Amino acid sequence: MSYCVNCGVELDATASFCPLCHTPVLNPGQPVDEHAPKPFPTQRGEVAPASKRELALLITAMLASVAVCCGVLNLFLNQQRPWSLYVIGAAVMLWIWFVPPLLARGMHLLLRLLLDVAAVAIYVFLISVDLDGRSWFCGLALPIILWGGAILLLLGLVLRVYRRSVLTSVTILIGSVGVLLFGVEFFLDRWLSGSWEPSWSVVVLAVCAGLTIPLLVIRRVPSLREEVRRRFHL
């Protein structure tokens, strides 16, 4: 058995150079065996990448089969209530969430968020059809969905700029939660009573502000920022 003269690693009889440091093997007492099989593959093999189109077709077929099966069952079971709309709406929402971004390379953030918000709106609309609640869909659900989509769009654009800073991302997320809930209470009050009387959302917004302000101070002071990063391994 031969050993590398440079790093000392044990060499196979078929090795013409050290696999660790690539030092040539020169051993007159044991020539290199060129006929024995190598102890490791000599050709580099790569796993073929999965086809995105085939994966999209698979997801589409799975969701479509579930939606069709539930729709057919609904025709024979409890025809008075279209319960299959919940499953069909969920299938449509999941398809919009996964298939278009999978097929479209480099989809713009704005277009992707618009598709996601549209998927949620379609799902809630189908629920409102079953519950005879098109009025609350247009007056309450749709404004909340659009408000949440606007917050997500702004959040995505800001996080793309500050994506390298974990501390900044946490600060923006906390502030976004407060703004989102503040808008939710506004739409709820307008729908239920026709007037806006802020109550619990102000408390949530104050708590979020109380958490955001110290984080902003920490981010502005280099010594505090480095101390937080060191202690929390950020």
TrEMBL record:
Where the record annotates domain Zinc-ribbon, the positions are 3-25
UniProt KW keywords: Membrane, Transmembrane, Transmembrane helix
Question: Per the UniProt record, which residue ranges are transmembrane?
Answer: 55-77, 83-103, 110-128, 140-159, 166-188, 200-221
- The organism's superkingdom is given as Bacteria
What protein am I looking at? Zinc ribbon domain-containing protein
What lineage does UniProt assign to this protein's organism?
A: Bacteria, Bacillati, Bacillota, Clostridia, Eubacteriales
